[in-house]
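#structure-requests
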Amino acid sequence: MILVVLGTHELPFTRLLDEVDRLKQERIIKEEVIVQHGHTPYKSEQLTLKPFVSYEEMDALYEDAGLVITHAGTGSVITGLRKGKTVIAAPRLKKYGEHNDDHQLQLVEAFTAQGHILSWNDGEKLEAVIKQAKDFIPKPFQSGKQRLQEILTDFIDHA
């Protein structure tokens, strides 16, 4: 199963859904596709659409997914990485009215440079990235949270 995640941002991201829907219609994608589409209005005969889901349902969807295609929201990307999934992140772009700015480009750039994810960028073919995902082995993600807590604890203990 492929999980497509658009998150909860109020601006639509139909560009990604149009591309996934096209690939499903053309049978380039053969797996079941479940889409959490949030505020993006969309109709499809090919995709299973869910506007919003509970935390528990989203967790189960991530667990069941063989591939996660997501907007480049930090939480959505990191959730996939923590579960050891292959993640393709697609940045929402200001020029298409998908976000207020282009900060998602920076997140994609950082995570791809570190070998954690693949990305689908403007002007690229999603099918090429999906083919690349079949052999992609993501570098395990480790949060810096633990180290930050150690530094703060050490500082407080010695202040």
